[in-house]
Amino acid sequence: MLCCMPGVAFVPALLVSWSSAAFIISYVIAVLAGHVEPLVPYISDTGTKPPESGIFGFMINISALLAVITMYIRYLLIEKQNESSHFVRPSCNMFSLCIGLMGCIGMGIVATFQELSVPSVHDIGALVAFGSGVVYITLQSIISYKSCPQWNTYFVCHVRMAISIISCIAFIPMIVFASQISMTKIDWTPGEKDYTYHFMSAVCEWTVAFGFIFFFLTFIRDFQ
C-alpha cells in the first residue's frame, strides 16, 4: 500500500493506521484481560495496567512522533503553496504548527505518565493533547478554505470543517463531564456513582480521538 502512494502520502497514511491500531490493540487486550469493561472505557483506561500499558505507551509515543512529522510536512506544503497564491499569512501557518506540536507533547505526556500512577500530570497532558488538537484541526480547516479552489476542493474543505465542528462540540462536554467525576478508577460498572459522567465523557473522548484520525486521513491526497 505504501509503495503505491506518490510523494509523502505514506506519512499521514502511516499515522492514521498506526494510531488506530494503538487504540484498538490496547482496548482489546485490556478487555480480554478483564482490566476494563467493554462498554466505552476511557482511552487511557485501556493503557493503564500491564501488559497493555507497555504497548499503549510505546505506540502512542510513536503516534506522537508521526504526528510531528505530518504537521511539519503540512506546514512546509502550505508555505510552498503560499509563495505563489498568498492565501494565508505565514504567521498563521506557523501558529498552527506550534499548536499542533503542543498537542504532540501532550500525547507524549499521556503515554509516559499513566492514569493511575501520576493522575494530575496525565490529566494535564490529555487536556493539552485534546485541546491543542481541536484548535489545530480547526485552523487547518480554515486554511484549507482559504486555499480553495487552487489547492483544495470544496468537498474536502467541507469534510474537514465538519470533523472540526464535531470534535469541538464533543470536546466541551468531555471536559465538563470529566470534571464531575469524584474518583480516579478504570474498572467502571453501570449503576455505580459517577458512572453516567464517566460514560458520557468517554464517548466524547473517543469521538474527538477518531475525529483527529479521520482529519489526518484527508491529508493523504494533499501529500501526494
Termini distance?
13 Å
Radius of gyration (CA) equals 18 Å
Q: Secondary-structure element sequence? A: HHHHHHH
Number of domains: 1
Low-pLDDT regions:
none
Largest sheet: none
Query: What's the overall average pLDDT, rounded?
Result: 93
Strand content: under 5%
User: What is the percent of helical residues?
Assistant: over 70%
Q: How many strand units? A: 0
Helical segment tally? 7
In terms of quaternary structure, the protein is: single chain
Shape: elongated
Give me the secondary-structure category.
mainly alpha
Compile the SSE list and pairings.
Layout: H1 10-32, H2 52-85, H3 90-112, H4 119-146, H5 154-179, H6 195-217, H7 219-223
Helix pairs in contact: 1-2, 1-6, 2-3, 3-4, 4-5, 4-6, 5-6
Characterise this structure:
With 224 residues, the chain is mainly alpha-helical. It has one domain. The chain contains 7 helices and no strands. The protein is elongated. The mean pLDDT is 93.
Which properties best describe this structure?
DRAM1 protein; transmembrane helix; 7 helices; mainly alpha; CWH43_N; transmembrane; DRAM/TMEM150_Autophagy_Mod; 224 residues
